[in-house]
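User: I'm writing a short report section on ligand binding and want a predicted complex to refer to. Could you take this sequence and zinc ion and write out the structure as tokens? A short remark afterwards would be nice.
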Amino acid sequence: MPLTTDDDVKDYLAKRVIVTDDGHWLWTLSKNNWGYGHCNRTTNPYLETLAHRLAWRVYVGEIEHELDHLCRVKHCINPEHCEDTTHRTNMHRAPHILQQLQRTHCPREHEYTNENTYYQKNDPGRRRCRECNRLRASRNRSNRRK
Ligand SMILES: [Zn+2]
Ligand SMILES: [Zn+2]
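Assistant: Sure. The structure tokens for the complex follow:
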């Protein structure tokens, strides 16, 4: 099925990555000769053949130069792990990505440490807080007991 909207593409990408504990989105389909995740250009509206570029287009926007992997994992497609090399700073990232990167605590003020952060496969762009998850789970349990 051809992908037409950004949401289609996000869905397509989310189903084809393995999200690791440290937040890499590892591409599970084929890789090109250089080790980058490869996607079929005819099935996406941006005509990209590289999965990390496609992820950047739908999550961040235009690519002004070349994308560089900050995390050094070539088949990782997490846009938070890439930067557009014309800009050595994060200044030109989309505001919502920038906000995510700058946020050090969850809405309930638990710190986003490596241990406390996890990502969900169907929404890997969002950091989640384990502590909140635990609280939610115990609240559900006590509700059920009543
Ligand atoms: Zn990565
Ligand atoms: Zn929390």
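A remark for your report: The helical segments are 6-14, 51-59, 95-102, 130-145. Residues 130-145 form the longest helix (16 residues).
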